[in-house]
Write a structure and sequence with these properties.
By secondary structure, the chain is mainly alpha-helical. α1 packs antiparallel against α2, α1 runs antiparallel to α4 and α2 runs antiparallel to α3. This is Four helix bundle protein.
Amino acid sequence: MHRYKDLKFWQLSRVFCKDIYLITKSFPSDEKFGLTSQLRRASVSIPSNIAEGASRVSNKDFARFLRISLGSCYEIETQLLISCDLDFIQKEELEKLQHTLYQIIKMMSRFISTLKI
């Protein structure tokens, strides 16, 4: 088992999740069950899957959950791009969120490569 709370990418993913919640507050109310919901669920999925994977006995299982988290990262990136296309967020906000997202992806990818699977 791994101490997920000590993992920098887990810590950063919690901050990122909060940022997603804050930014989606300004989305149109008719998006409540659309992009707002999708972005929020996917952002919660990142730290949640890291934590769940850390509880697994094998590194192979942990890596599987980390890959699910990575999938959520790319899902969010796509949804953020669409949100920008629809003028729900500004280009500057998109770039800030993408920067944080890329940091999470890089750290998690590097960590996965260190696991002895």
